[in-house]
Design goal:
Elements: E1 15-26, E2 32-41, H1 46-52, E3 64-70, H2 88-92, E4 96-100, H3 112-126, E5 133-143, H4 145-154, E6 174-178, H5 184-197, H6 210-215, H7 222-228, E7 242-247, H8 259-268, E8 275-280, H9 293-307
Parallel strand pairs: 3-4, 3-5, 5-6, 6-7, 7-8
Antiparallel strand pairs: 1-2, 2-4
Length: 308
């Protein structure tokens, strides 16, 4: 069979640039560790440029808004590219998507993780021209542990800043927190109560929990430090607009120990206009309800409103 078809050329090509070193840090063993990101963006027909020395006609290389994607994994460490496929629609919508690896709780204790996130944001601003980024329009999003870090970055505080790329800002203009444990203390206390009544519970001590491993240090002060490290206790008018997404059937980070509190704190601060909170029916902890087309469209519309 031979046919002539005309698919048009409306959709732009995507390029993935992998293993970009944005920071060099020292882990808890005293070893130097390269922290890397992957970037996905519309920047022309990459293989055509290599083979033919020219691009598709009409390609737009003007600066684009960027989104920093922070993976989850209980701060235990996860591949930066594990969920990168779910970010395709954001890149198709004209965003430069930067998916980052940050130090795990076995490589560094808090605040190393948020310092890494802020370093990645500053790196993107420092290399904005190279990656076709508008440095004035950077958003952040993450799931679970990554949602917590995204919410922490969204507070736009001047703390937890590293030294690399320090001449650039780490502030963000919009944030999507997907079921992040943004109240570490409440979750830690709920887990502690569960340990008392359920011998089969996955944890037996606070130190074993994801939050305990993140914070490390003296167990006598761990709750005090958990409170100090929680975005729910950092809400000020410096925060950027936040989209909060949480499942009503989340057994790992229930709404009542996290996003419900976050939204109420934002309301108490008189900043309700900066927060949109959606409870996702029947959704668990990162179950596929979050990645349905309707949900991605909701997130894209939110970022379009604040970054475009």
């Amino acid at each position: 069979m031979k046919q002539v078809i005309n698919p048009g050329n409306a959709r732009k090509s995507l390029t993935v640039i992998d293993n970009i070193v944005y920071s060099v840090q020292e882990n808890m063993k005293g070893e130097k560790q390269e922290l890397k990101m992957s970037i996905m963006l519309q920047n022309g027909n990459s293989e055509m440029k290599l083979a033919a020395g020219k691009d598709d006609p009409g390609e737009d290389h003007s600066p684009k808004p960027a989104l920093v994607w922070i993976p989850g994994g209980g701060w235990r460490g996860t591949d930066k590219n594990l969920m990168l496929g779910e970010m395709k629609e954001f890149a198709d919508s004209g965003y430069v998507v930067a998916s980052i690896y940050y130090r795990s709780s076995s490589e560094g204790h808090f605040p190393d993780q948020i310092e890494d996130v802020k370093t990645a944001i500053r790196f993107l601003r420092a290399h904005a021209e190279q990656y076709e980024i508008d440095p004035e329009r950077i958003g952040i999003m993450g799931r679970s542990a990554g949602g917590y870090l995204a919410a922490l970055a969204a507070m736009n505080t001047d703390v937890y800043e590293g030294e690399e790329w320090s001449e650039y800002s780490s502030r963000v203009q919009a944030c999507c927190d997907m079921f992040g444990p943004v109240d570490l203390l409440s979750l830690m206390e709920a887990e502690e109560e569960r340990m008392k009544v359920d011998p089969g519970f996955r944890w037996h001590t606070i130190e074993e929990t994801h939050g305990g491993a993140l914070l490390g240090g003296d167990i006598k002060t761990i709750k005090e430090r958990a409170k100090a490290a929680s975005p729910v206790h950092m809400v000020t008018d410096s925060m950027c607009p936040v989209l909060i997404l949480h499942g009503d059937n989340d057994p790992i980070v229930p709404c009542s120990f996290s996003s419900d509190i976050f939204y109420e704190k934002i309301k108490e601060a008189g900043l309700e206009s900066k927060a949109d909170y959606y409870i996702i029916k029947n959704a668990g902890h990162g179950s596929r309800e979050f990645f349905q087309p309707e949900m991605k469209e909701l997130m894209i519309q939110f970022f379009d409103k604040h970054l475009k």
